[in-house]
Recover the amino acids of this structure.
C-alpha cells in the first residue's frame, strides 16, 4: 500500500504554494495592518495540525469481515443512487440550464452561481445523490476482485461523471478534487500491479511511495500528457473568461482586483505581444500561478479586515451546505452572501484556514490539533486496509493536499463527504448475508 502520509501531503501543498509565490511576476499589496498577527495565526494553525498528527503513533483496527455478497450489493445500491443523481444532473445541464452548449458559457455559469438555492428540488436531489456514483467507483476499485468487469466499466463511466461535467462547464477544482480522491483510493487498493513501489525523496526526507509501474514509459508518458492537457484546459478556461469580460486593459483590472503590482517586465511583454493568442498565453500562465499563490495573501487580508478574532458563526460559514437545508423546514437563516459580508473580499481563496477562522477565530486552534489527530488516526487505519477509513482518508487527503490554496471541505464537496459517511454506516451495519425465509413471504 502506497498511501501518502498526511504530513507529507501538507509539505507538498506548502512547496506548491511557495513555488507559485516565488515565481509569479507580481507582488501582493494592501495586506492590512495586522500582517504579523495573521501570519502568526496561520503558522499556529499548521503547527498545531502537525502536532496533532505527531501525537498519534499507532492505532488498532478491529477486523471486519465483509462478505462478497455484501460488497456486490453495496456497490450496486450506491451505483443506483448515484446514477439517478447523474441522470438528473445531465437533464438539468442540458434542458433546464442549457450550460453544456451555451453560447456564452462564462456568463451562464456566473448567472447560475448567483442563484443561491435557486436550483429547485431537482437541483437538491442531484447534488445530494450524484456523488454516490463516485463513491461506488471507489469501492469498486477497493473490491475489484469481486466485481464483474463489464459492471466495473459501467461504474467507472458514471463515477467519473463529475470530471466530465467539470470539463464541459469549465470548472477546474472539482476535477482535482475527484481525481485526487480516486488516486488515493487506487494507491490504497490491492490491485496486483501496485505491489511494487518506489520511494520518492527530497534529499534524505522520504515523501511518499509510488507504484513502480507509474515510472514506466507506457504509464508516465500518458500521465504527463494528461497533466499537460489539464494545464492547456486551464489556459483555455482563462482565455474564455478574458474574452467574455473583454477588458480593455486586463492587467490594470487584475492588479486592482487582486490587490497586486505586476512586474514591469511582465507587463511590457504582455502589452507588446505579437497577437492576442500570445498575450492570453502569458496571462493564462500568470493566472495559474496566481491560482496557487494568492491564498496566503488573501488570508492575511481577511484576518486584518475582521473586527474580532474569536469567531463569528461557529460552523455555519464552513458547513453552510448543511445549514441551508433548515430553510426547507421553514427555519429562517441568513444567506451565504449575508454571512460572507464579514470577508474582506468574496470569491477568493484564503487557504483551508480562512473560512475556519471566520467561524471559530482563535478558538479554532484547538480544532486544528484535534483535526490533525483524527487525520493521522484515519491514515493509520487506512494503511492497515480498513475500507471505511480509506474512503474517509481519500477525502481528508485531498483537503490536506490543497490546504495552502483552498478549503476543499466546503460547498458542494460536502455532498461527497455525506456520501462517504453514509457509505461507512452501510459498510459497518449492512448484514453480510440477507436471507429471506419462505414463511416470511
Amino acid at each position: 500500500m502506497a498511501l501518502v502520509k498526511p504530513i507529507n501531503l501538507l509539505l507538498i501543498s506548502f512547496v506548491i504554494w511557495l513555488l507559485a509565490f516565488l515565481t509569479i511576476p507580481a507582488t501582493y499589496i494592501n495586506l492590512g495592518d495586522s500582517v504579523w498577527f495573521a501570519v502568526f495565526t496561520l503558522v499556529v494553525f499548521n503547527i498545531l495540525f502537525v502536532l496533532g498528527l505527531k501525537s498519534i503513533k499507532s492505532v488498532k483496527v478491529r477486523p471486519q469481515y465483509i462478505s462478497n455478497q455484501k460488497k456486490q450489493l453495496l456497490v450496486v445500491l450506491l451505483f443506483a443512487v448515484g446514477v439517478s443523481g447523474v441522470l438528473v444532473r445531465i437533464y438539468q445541464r442540458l434542458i433546464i440550464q442549457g450550460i453544456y452548449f451555451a453560447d456564452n458559457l462564462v456568463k451562464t455559469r456566473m448567472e447560475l452561481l448567483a442563484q443561491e438555492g435557486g436550483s429547485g428540488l431537482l437541483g437538491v436531489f442531484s447534488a445530494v445523490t450524484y456523488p454516490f456514483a463516485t463513491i461506488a467507483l471507489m469501492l469498486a476499485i477497493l473490491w475489484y476482485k469481486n466485481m464483474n468487469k463489464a459492471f466495473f466499466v459501467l461504474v467507472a463511466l458514471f463515477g467519473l461523471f463529475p470530471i466530465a461535467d467539470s470539463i464541459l462547464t469549465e470548472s477546474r477544482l472539482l476535477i482535482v478534487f475527484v481525481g485526487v480522491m480516486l488516486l488515493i483510493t487506487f494507491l490504497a487498493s490491492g490491485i496486483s500491479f501496485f505491489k511494487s513501489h518506489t520511494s520518492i525523496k527530497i534529499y534524505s526526507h522520504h515523501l511518499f511511495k509510488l507504484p513502480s509501474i507509474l515510472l514506466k514509459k507506457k504509464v508516465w508518458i500518458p500521465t504527463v500528457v494528461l497533466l499537460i492537457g489539464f494545464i492547456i484546459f486551464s489556459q483555455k478556461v482563462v482565455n474564455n473568461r478574458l474574452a467574455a469580460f473583454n477588458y480593455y486593459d486586463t492587467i490594470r483590472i487584475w492588479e486592482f482586483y487582486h490587490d497586486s503590482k505586476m512586474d514591469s517586465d511582465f507587463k511590457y511583454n504582455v502589452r507588446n505581444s505579437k497577437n492576442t493568442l500570445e498575450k492570453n498565453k502569458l496571462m493564462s500562465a500568470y493566472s495559474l500561478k496566481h491560482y496557487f499563490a494568492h491564498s496566503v495573501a488573501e488570508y492575511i487580508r481577511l484576518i486584518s479586515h475582521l473586527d474580532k478574532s474569536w469567531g463569528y458563526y461557529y460552523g455555519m460559514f464552513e458547513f453552510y451546505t448543511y445549514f441551508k437545508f433548515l430553510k426547507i423546514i421553514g427555519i429562517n437563516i441568513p444567506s451565504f452572501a449575508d454571512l460572507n459580508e464579514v470577508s474582506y473580499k468574496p470569491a477568493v481563496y484564503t487557504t483551508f484556514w480562512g473560512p475556519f477562522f471566520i467561524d471559530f477565530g482563535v478558538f479554532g486552534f484547538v480544532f486544528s490539533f484535534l483535526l490533525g489527530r483524527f487525520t493521522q488516526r484515519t491514515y493509520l487505519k487506512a494503511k492497515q486496509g480498513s475500507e471505511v477509513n480509506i474512503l474517509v482518508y481519500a477525502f481528508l487527503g485531498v483537503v490536506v493536499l490543497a490546504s495552502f490554496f483552498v478549503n476543499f471541505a466546503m460547498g458542494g464537496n460536502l455532498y461527497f463527504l455525506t456520501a462517504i459517511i453514509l457509505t461507512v454506516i452501510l459498510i459497518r451495519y449492512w448484514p453480510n448475508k440477507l436471507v429471506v425465509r419462505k414463511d416470511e413471504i
Notes: Residues 6-434 form one domain.
